[in-house]
Every structure is written in C-alpha cells, then in structure tokens.
Amino acid sequence: MRRYQDKHNVQKQAYYTDRFNVQPSLPRFEVTEDSLFNATLLHVKGLVDVLEAYVEAGQLVVWVAPKANVSALKAFKTAGYENLSEMSAVDFIAQKGGFEVFYQLLSMEKHERARVKCFVPQGETLHSVTEVYKSANWSEREMYDMFGILLENHPYMKRLLMPDDWQGHPLLKTYPLQGDEAAQWYEIDTIFGKEYREVVGPENRDPARVDARNTVDFSRIGHEVESGAPYSATPTAQEYQEKGGIAVVSKITKEKAKTLKERP
Amino acid sequence: MAQHQVEYLNSGGLPIALTSVDKLVQWGRSNSVWALSYGLACCAIEMMAAGGSRYDFDRFGTIFRASPRHSDVMIIAGTLTKKHAEFTRRLYDQMAEPKWVISMGSCANTGGMFNTYSTVQGVDRIIPVDIYLPGCAPRPETLQYALMLLQKKIRRQGANRKQALKRLV
C-alpha cells in the first residue's frame, strides 16, 4: 500500500519525491543470443568504444560516452539503421547528477530497433547529431527547451515549444508543476506589463472554487443579479424572449406546441 | 404585390410596429453577429460543427469571418497557452467595437484540466468575457444557446452606449 500522506494543503507541497521515480526493471539479455543484433554490435564496436550493451524489450541497447554520440550514430547508420525515430533525455539529476540521453533507431531492412544511450552530466554540452540524422533537428531543440541541454554545432539552437523569453526548463523534475513566478505571471507580464499584476490578481489554481455570494465573478443559475449587486435568494425569471417580443421572431410556448401522434 | 393584412384593433389600426432606434439597431446587430474564425483546440471542432450545415449558425446570422476587422464576436474555443496569449489579445484588440467574447469550454473558462505551468488559467485574465460556456467540449447546441444568450444581451444594450471599460477578471 502507498504510504499515507497528509492531503491538507497538498498543492503547496513539493510535488516531486523519489517514490515517483522507482524504475521498473525489464529483464536484460546478452547480445550474443541474437545473431542480427550481434552482427550490428560487432560492426559498431569496430568504430566506437562501447561501454555497455544488452538486449532489453527486444531492442539492442548500446551505451557510449557522450563525446562519442555522433560517431556511434554514424556507425549505426552504416549498419543499416537509417531512421532516428525518437530522441530525448531523462532527468537523473537527483540520482546521478545528469541526464540520460537516448537515440531510438529503426532499421527498415532488418526490422529491428536499437537504442543508443549516453550519460551527460549536468551543465555539460552535447554534440548535435543533425549531420547524421536530419530528424534530430527539432528533437534536439525540444530537448534543449525541456531540459536545458545545450547542443554544439546545431543549425538553429532555439527553444521549440516554450516562448523564447521563457525562464526555466519545464521537464526537469525540480520544475514546479504550476510554474515559478515568471511562469505564473507570464501572460500578464508580456501583454500588460508587470504593473498590471495587481489589477488581474494571482491565478486561481483551485478548479472547484465557487462562491455563490460573490456576484462579480459568479452568477448562480436562477438567481442572477446585476454584477456586484447583493446576492438574492429569490429566483429570477428564466425566459429567453424579452417582454413584448421582438419583430419577426415569435415565441412558442408549451401550450401552443402540438405533439404529433403519427407521421403526417 | 404583397397584401399586408391590417389589424385594425392593434397598433392603432396601421400595419406598423413602433420601436426605438436603439432597439432597431441592436436588433440588427444581434441578428448579424459575425464570429471570428479562430479555434485553439478540440472545442474548435464543435464550433466548426455548429457552423456546418447540420447545426447551421448561418440561420442566426452568425457567419465566420477570416478577419478580426469583420468580426463582432470572438469565440475562444479551446486551451489558451501562455505562449499564445499575446496573439489572442492582439486579435481581440484588432476587432472593431462593438465586440463581444464567448469563452467556450472549461479550458477557456478556467484553464480546465490543464492546471499547469503553460496554460492561461481562464481567458478572462487577458480579455473581458461576455458569456462563459461550460462543457468539455460543449456540444454545438450549447454554443448556439450561448449565442442566443449573447443576442439577448446585445438587445438589452443601448445602440449608442458609451463603451464602458470592461472589467478584467
């Protein structure tokens, strides 16, 4: 059972604890058990230094040094892995002080997938692989945007998803779910300026907040009053049409309506 | 020639209807509420359905226009991200007075389920809203009802009213 935690004021507590990060481990197999993977690994080993290699979830996983990422991907490309289907990073700053960067590769001719991984310590840069795989261009920009890993020799090193003047990198485990101060006031600061913060007020982060007596922000159905007027318990009329009607449009009341018993 | 039936017992016996300029103008405005073609997320699909032939917004006089200069109402249909907020505000500013805003769906109303760092927690933080439309996503009928409520609101207003500064939030 999950450990009991006091739910009071849970929004203000730090959201990240290590219990979210217990890694489920998959069984790992020797590469020599699979002849296709073994041939690929031998080819790659002839070109770069491989730190570790195993087969996990039916895919070849190869660990290399972060400096060797471009040459490793070049080796895989010559081995027939012509498609970089995905790449990104995983935040392991709390455990290991850095990021695990992975490159997910696909070989159409061999019907096999492989994953090249490397460990990048926090604050260090990585070499861009856009010269090997063009599809890495936006992925690397996203990786920079979300984790702050800078890439050397990238053709256009700029944030992909967040605005250019955004502060922080949102996919870091330490990034607050509801944003830091800059994030919480971002739209007010960019549109109106910082002095407008007092006019608009802080964000309401409680999605269930309802105050029936607050007639400025809420209008209770059946008890509508003018904005700012005192709350009234007497029900208001719920008629769509104005008094006296309007030209051309006529109101059909329930009494006037006919119910057909059968199709005419 | 069209034959006008004269009701001698009503309207002083003449085939006329008495009204004020205010009411006439606002009646005209309320029946030609042109909407800006502007969708942000999945609510826009419902908005498109409301504009399509099955639900047919055109019979309310609501025609989607491609330019904010032509539009009277802005339907915020979907999640507004903080990156996009300034563009929404710019489009709103480009619309000519009189203008109205319908906030469509939970995301536009309050941020909805996106209680996160990158979503504007309610579009009324950046532009004034006339009608809040609940639902995730609201059905086209709901949007049509919101439009009818907006028409009702427009008819209540004076034609030549001084544009009161709309309160933010």
Automatic annotation (TrEMBL), chain B:
Record text on cofactor binding: Binds 1 [4Fe-4S] cluster.
Main function: NDH-1 shuttles electrons from NADH, via FMN and iron-sulfur (Fe-S) centers, to quinones in the respiratory chain. The immediate electron acceptor for the enzyme in this species is believed to be ubiquinone. Couples the redox reaction to proton translocation (for every two electrons transferred, four hydrogen ions are translocated across the cytoplasmic membrane), and thus conserves the redox energy in a proton gradient.
Cofactor(s) required, per the database record: [4Fe-4S] cluster
E.C. code: 7.1.1.-
Pfam family, one: Oxidored_q6
Reaction catalysis annotation: a quinone + NADH + 5 H(+)(in) = a quinol + NAD(+) + 4 H(+)(out)
Subcellular location: Cell membrane
Family of this protein: Belongs to the complex I 20 kDa subunit family.
Domain NADH:ubiquinone oxidoreductase-like 20kDa subunit: 42-149
Primary site of residence: membrane
Protein name: NADH-quinone oxidoreductase subunit B
Lineage top rank: taxon: Bacteria
Membrane topology category: Peripheral membrane protein
Residues bound to [4Fe-4S] cluster: 42-43, 107, 136
Enzyme class: translocase
Entry keyword set: 4Fe-4S, Cell membrane, Iron, Iron-sulfur, Membrane, Metal-binding, NAD, Quinone, Translocase, Transport, Ubiquinone
Subunit relationships: NDH-1 is composed of 14 different subunits. Subunits NuoB, C, D, E, F, and G constitute the peripheral sector of the complex.
